[in-house]
Amino acid sequence: MSKKIKCWICGAPHDYCPTCGQTHGWKYVADKIECYDVYLIMEDYRSGALNKSKAAKELSERCGINAGDDLSWMLPQIEKIIREIIGEKEKATKKTENKSKLFD
C-alpha cells in the first residue's frame, strides 16, 4: 500500500510503497532519480567522501547542475548546500547604454 511523501530535494509529493523498498528504495528520499542523484552527491560532500571541487564536478556531470543555474526548484535548505558546493549564481548587471546626458 503506497502513501504520499515529499521529496527531500524538491519537496514534490509522490507515492511511496514501503513494501516495494527492495526495488524502489530510493523513492523514500526522492520523487525522481535525478533528485536522488543530487541527494547522493550532497550526502557524499557532507560526509567528507567528496571535496567541494569533486562534488561540483559530479553535480555538473551527473545532474547538469552548474553555478549559473536557477535552483529555485529545490527546497531552500537544499539549495543552500548545493550553492555552497557550486558557488553563487552571478547577478545580472544592467547594461549601460551610451545615452546622451541630454535625456537624463
Would you write up a description of this structure?
The protein has one domain. The chain is built from 4 helices and 2 strands, in the order ββαααα. The chain has a two-stranded antiparallel ribbon with strand order 1-2. A hairpin with a 6-residue loop joins strand 1 and strand 2. The relative contact order is 0.13. The C terminus is likely disordered.
Uncertain segments are: 96-104
What oligomeric state do the depicted chains represent?
Answer: single chain
Described by strand count, sense and barrel closure, the largest sheet is: 2 strands, antiparallel
Instruction: Provide the helix percentage.
Output: 40-55%
Secondary structure topology:
Layout: E1 3-6, E2 13-16, H1 21-24, H2 33-47, H3 52-63, H4 76-86
Short structural description:
The chain is mainly alpha-helical and 104 residues long. It has helices spanning 21-24, 33-47, 52-63, 76-86; strands at 3-6, 13-16. The protein has one domain (3-86).
Keywords for this entry:
104 residues; 2 strands; two-stranded antiparallel sheet; 40% helix; disordered C terminus; mainly alpha; single chain; 4 helices
